[in-house]
Amino acid sequence: MSVRIGINPITWTNDDLPELGAETPLEVCLAEGKKAGYAGFELGHKFPRQSSTLGPILASHELNLVSGWYSSRLLERSAEDEIEAMQEHLTLLKELGSTVMVYCEVSESIHGDRQIAVRNRPVMSEAQWHTLLQRIEVVGQYLQSEGVSLAYHHHMGTVIESEADVDRLMAGTSDAVGLLLDSGHLTYAGADPVAVAKRHANRIRHVHCKDIRGSVMLDAKNRAMSFLDAVLNGVFTVPGEGDVDYLAIFKVLKESKYSGWLVVEAEQDPSVAHPLSYANLGYKNLKNLCAEANLEVLGYHPNSDLANSLTAVSP
Known about the structure:
By secondary structure, this protein is α/β, with parallel strands linked by helices. About 45% of the residues are buried. The protein is built from 13 helices and twelve strands.
């Protein structure tokens, strides 16, 4: 089994704080990401959402579409309504060869509100848990039938944040509901990402490699910061620059025969953390860690469906 190394454009431009990197065009993100060695990108707010436009742009840089965040509202609408709402996003992923959807329930979420301390995140009632588990199973089964894995992104400031939340989600659903393992969010939530990876190894569909500066995290908690203020204060960084034991995590992935993407997704202020420098550092550190864990790393792979469609319209 093998992995590929991708990156999220949040290194250059931030979706939750659009003023961060607002002046940086998509072309710069893609060119610098490719220069650093990455095989693919996740979606960001500057990416076109039509495959006919985005596909050729990615192909020109020899980059794959890794995946993209989807904001779910299953506590507010039915599974059938959610499936209808995701069609445009799902179509883009499928047409550009992505086989995983980054999925997060954002009902009542506070992670985008700088006025609310992240410690005051929403907590579900028993009735809400029952509703969410029932509905997300339907969505997961549907995505599985479409050839795309639901990779649930536990996230600070949302209804599924803690280790206990992750455990309950996994216990209450089938393997149609996969897990996105995010080492930074788990650590911030007080969990041990290595232990979570071991416990749910067979459910991991996607991996976000976000390291965390422990001293900055403790300061953010002591001062009851919002999630975004903690980001601005430098709580996250690229793999190998913080306190997460990535080698131990990657050994779990190796043992469980994980085959998928490892994505550098480190929210930082690009005016402080030079994007290309940190992209280079993240890639180098991930490549070295993969070698230590005996994880084979593959590079860019052309999307055959896209290549065929481009050939068909060529003069």
